[in-house]
Amino acid sequence: PRVPRSTAAAGGWTPVAPNVRDTVTVPDGYRTRAVINWGDPVLGDAPAFDPFAQTEESAAKQFGYNSDYVGVLPINDATALLVVNHEYTNEELMFPAGVYTPDEIRRIAIQSHGLSVVKIQRVGGPSSGQWRQADPENRYNRRITGTTQFEMTGPAAGHDRLRTTADPSGRKVLGTFNNCAGGQTPWGTVLSGEENFNQYFGKSGALDARYTTSYARYGISGTGDRGWKSVDPRFDLTAEPHEPFRFGWIVEIDPFNPTSTPRKHTMLGRFKHEGANIQIAADGRAVAYMGDDERGDYMYKFVSADTFDARDTQASRLRNMQLLTRGTLYVARLTGDDAFAVDASGNFTPADGEYDGLGTWIPLTSDTTSYVAGMSVAEVLIDTRLAADKVAPTRMDRPEDVQPNPVNGKIYAALTNNSDRAKKWPVDEANPIASSYTRPSLGAPLTKASGNRNGYVLEITEGGGDHTGTSFAWTLLLVCGDPESPETYFSGFPKDQVSPISCPDNVAFDSVGNLWISTDGAVLGGNDGLFRCPVAGTERGHVQQFLTVPVGAETCGPLITHDDLSVWVAVQHPGEGTGSTFATPDSTWPHTHEFPRPGVVVTWKA
Ligand code: FEO
Ligand code: CA
Ligand code: CA
Ligand code: CA
C-alpha cells in the first residue's frame, strides 16, 4: 500500500466542529488562503476590481462569479493551470444600489458566467502545498463567458432543433451557463456540466407548441427568468424557441490550447448536467459517469466507441479529443435485495441491515442506433429525460457528482437531498428515507421533517470490475444527517465518532482513495463544509469535517492534489441570504467587505 505524503490524507488532524463563523475554518496546524476571487484579473489587461465601476468589458477579463468545479492541471512541479467555472451570479450581492441600470447588470452578469483558466505557482518550495496566482501576463490565462463561441459535436450537432436565426448551422453556440461540477480527463482537458440552464430563458408571447412536453420536462417556462432577453433576443423563447436546446450539455475545454474552440458534446445527452468524470476501462474505452441534478431524476453513463491513446503525441491527443463524440449512452436502474418494509417514520428498513442491491445500465442510444422506441438518435440526445422516462430507470434523490475512485475503481455518487421523496415518489432501498431530522440553528433540538433532507452517498461496483458493462452492484455508504438521528447510517462506523454531515454535493479522492465530500445546503444549523471519509477497512464510514466555509456559502470543488499537499475548495455564494463578508484571515488578497467575493481557496499543512 502507498504511504500518503500528506497529512490531510493520512489523518493526524482534529475535525473542525460545526460552526457559523464568517470565515474559512481549517484544523489546527493548517493554513488557508484565497487564491483568486471574483473580480481579480485573469487577463493581463484586466482593470482592477471596482464594484462601483464594473462593465461587461472588465467582467470579461476578470475572474467570474460563483465557482463550483475546481481543476488543477500541472504544468510542472512549480506551476499549474487552475480551471474553474462560474455557475451563476448573485446580482443582489454584486451591485450597489442605484449605480447600474438593469440592462447593465444583465450584460455584466452574462460575462461573469462561464469558466476561467488561471496560471498558478507554488509558494515555498517543492514540498509546500501553498499556491498563488501567477502573473496574468502568460499564454494560458483565459476567460470563457456567456458569449464565447462553442462548437457542437456528436450525432445531434446540426440537428434542426439546434438551429436558430443567428446560427442556421446548428453547430455554433454562444456561451455556457450554470456550469456546476466537472472533471479532468486523462487526455488533459476539463469537462463541465451545464446545469440549471432553464432559468435564463424568458418569453415575449406564446411558447412554441411543438415543444410543450420537452420544455415542461426541463422546467423551461419563460417565467422567473433573469430578464436577459432585453439585452439579447436569443433568450426570448417566443423569438428563438430552439436556443434552450443548445444548453444542458457537457462542455469540454482544452486549457493547454488557449485559442481552441470549446465544445459541447451532444453524445453525452442533454439534461441538468451536474458534471462528468472519466474512467478508462480495461479495454481502453472512456467511460463518463454523470448525474442529472433534479429531484427524482436519473444517473447516466457514457461508454466511448473508440479507445484512449495514452501516448503523448499530437496525433493521439487529437484522437482522444474525439472520444466523447461516438459511443453509447446508458441510464441506471437500481433494485434492492430486501423486500419492501418501512418503519413508523416511513423509512425503508432493510432486513439484512444494509441498503444495497443490484443494478442495470439501460442503453438509450448509440451514435448510430436509438434503443428508445419512437425516438431517433438525435431526439434521444436532445430530449434525454423524455427518452429515459420510457425505460423505467430509478428516480433518485438529486444525483450530483458521480465520480470513480482511482484507487478501488468503485463509483461514488452524491445524492444531495429530496424533500419530495415519499410525497411524490415512494421510498425504495436505494432512496430509503421518507422523513429525517434537521436543526434550525446550532444548539437547537433536532426536528423531524418530511422527505430526505440530508442526502446519501451511493457506492457502485461495476460487474466484474468492467466499467463498460451493463450490470453493477450498489450500496449506500452513508445516509447523512446528525449522527444522533435514528435514520443516519455510516456503514456501521460508531456514530459517536463521526462528524454531522448534510447535503453531500461534490466528491473527490486523495492518493489513498479516501472519499472527500463537500456539502451544499446543510440543514443541521452549521455552515457547509468539507469532509473526509475512508471507504475501506475498519475506518470505512468514519466521516470527519476538515473545513467549513463562511456563512451563506456552499463548499465546492473539492480537489486534493495528486501529491496530497493541497486541499482546494471553491467558496460559492458567500453571503447568499446572510450578509457574509468572506474575510478570510490568512488571505493576502484584498477583500471588498461590502461585497462578499466568492473565490477559490487552498489549504495546506503549515
Ligand atoms: Fe450546481 Fe447540482 O449543484
Ligand atoms: Ca439490503
Ligand atoms: Ca453541485
Ligand atoms: Ca451546489
Description of the structure:
- By secondary structure, the protein is mainly β.
- The protein has one domain.
- Helix content is 8%, strand content 32%.
- The protein is built from eight helices and 32 strands.
- The chain has helices at 7-10, 56-59, 91-94, 102-112, 212-217, 314-320, 377-382, 384-389; strands at 30-37, 70-74, 79-86, 114-123, 130-133, 142-144, 149-153, 172-174, 179-184, 190-194, 250-253, 263-265, 273-280, 285-292, 295-297, 299-307, 327-336, 356-366, 396-397, 399-404, 411-415, 435-438, 447-450, 456-462, 471-479, 504-509, 515-519, 529-533, 544-548, 554-560, 566-572, 599-605.
- The protein has a nine-stranded antiparallel sheet. Strands 8-7-12-11-10-9 form a six-stranded mixed sheet, with no helix packed on it. Strands 2, 3, 4, 5 and 6 form a five-stranded antiparallel sheet that branches.
- The longest helix is centred in the N-terminal third of the chain and has 11 residues, at 102-112.
- 57% of the residues are buried.
- Residues 1-7 and 586-590 have low confidence and may be disordered.
- The site of one calcium ion has 9 residues, from loops.
